[in-house]
Amino acid sequence: METIERIFQAILFEMIVLSILIPTSVIIGGFKAEKMIVVAIGLSLFAVFWNYIYNIIFDNFMGINRSARGLAARCIHAVGFELGMIAITLPVIAWYLNITWIAALILEAGFLIFILVYTLIFNILYDRYQPYQKWFSK
Question: What is the chain written as a DSSP string?
Answer without folding.
Answer: --HHHHHHHHHHHHHHHHHHHHHHHHHHH---HHHHHHHHHHHHHHHHHHHHHHHHHHHHHH-S-GGG--HHHHHHHHHHHHHHHHHHHHHHHHHHHT--HHHHHHHHHHHHHHHHHHHHHHHHHHHHH-HHHHHH--
